[in-house]
Design goal:
Blueprint: E1 3-5, E2 16-19, H1 20-29, E3 37-41, E4 47-56, E5 60-68, E6 77-83, H2 89-99, E7 104-109, H3 119-140, E8 147-148, E9 152-153, H4 154-160, E10 167-170, H5 179-188, E11 193-198, H6 206-214, E12 218-220, H7 229-244
Parallel strand pairs: 1-3, 6-7, 6-11, 7-8, 7-9, 10-11, 10-12
Antiparallel strand pairs: 2-5, 3-4, 4-5
Helix pairs in contact: 2-3, 2-7, 5-7
Length: about 250
């Protein structure tokens, strides 16, 4: 069933109306008409089956609610703190992070990050990334839109971003802990939230590793094979979900 986004504040209206790009996609691309059913989700965990009752050209359509879907099963609350990779890889990371249930994404500029963005470029890039996140939510059935932070420097991130008590850093340093060693104690303690820090193509600098350790990040080994940035993020998120998801 097609899925469309209707912000939570608009669910309070007497009649729900979908406008803009979401309406255009429904009416012009999918060619939905009055009487057709679809799913609306509010980005905060709610979804409803609805029927289209009226259309306004290609710019809007109104619906009536038929039923609410039960909420999705709760999973671990993971914050992905990701050094921005080059090319379109950040979009891939965002897409798969949504599919894996990440709750928040913090894009970072580290010492070895290749991508550099000016103020306007950063705003435009963030808008594009939000569209990627929305499309991923629509495709995979995720009803909660992850929060996307404005890209920030590594130093600013470590100093100002509020994070869960349990924090791990994908690490290539000799003292990195095996995943089981790092995650099993958290699982046994009933931890259900975590921050994951993933570096750029050239890895973190020694100074950045030291700064993260000071902030409480545990260096986490992802094995003996050196992984691409996006692969490291997917593996670490999956491991955290396995260890920290509520039963």
């Amino acid at each position: 069933m097609p899925r469309f986004y209707l912000p939570a504040e608009q669910w309070q209206a007497s009649r729900w109306e979908v406008r803009g790009a979401e309406a255009y996609h429904a009416l012009r691309v999918l060619r939905l008409r009055p009487g057709d059913t679809c799913t609306l989700f509010d980005g905060q965990g709610r979804a409803a089956k609805v029927r289209i009752v009226a259309v306004d050209g290609a710019s809007a359509f109104q619906v009536e609610a038929l039923s609410l879907f039960p909420p999705l099963k709760a999973c671990a609350e993971i914050i992905l703190c990701q050094a921005i990779p080059k090319g379109s890889n950040m979009e891939l990371v965002l897409q798969k992070a949504v599919e894996l249930g990440v709750r928040r994404i913090v894009p970072l500029f580290t010492e070895r990050t290749i991508v550099r963005l000016s103020g306007s470029e950063s705003i435009n890039k963030a808008e594009k990334w939000r569209r990627v996140i929305l499309e991923a939510c629509k495709q995979c059935g995720q009803d909660t839109l992850p929060v996307l932070d404005t890209p920030r420097s590594y130093a600013d991130f470590l100093e100002h971003v509020e994070l869960p008590d349990f924090k791990v850093q994908a690490a290539l340093v000799p003292n990195a802990l095996p995943m089981r060693t790092a995650l099993e104690p958290a699982r046994e303690a009933g931890v259900h939230s975590a921050a994951l820090l993933v570096g750029p193509e050239g890895d973190f600098t020694p100074e950045e590793y030291a700064a993260a350790r000071t902030r409480g990040f545990l260096p986490l080994s992802l094995g003996s094979i050196v992984l691409r940035v996006e692969t490291a993020a997917f593996l670490a998120i999956s491991a955290l979900r396995y260890a920290l998801d509520p039963e």
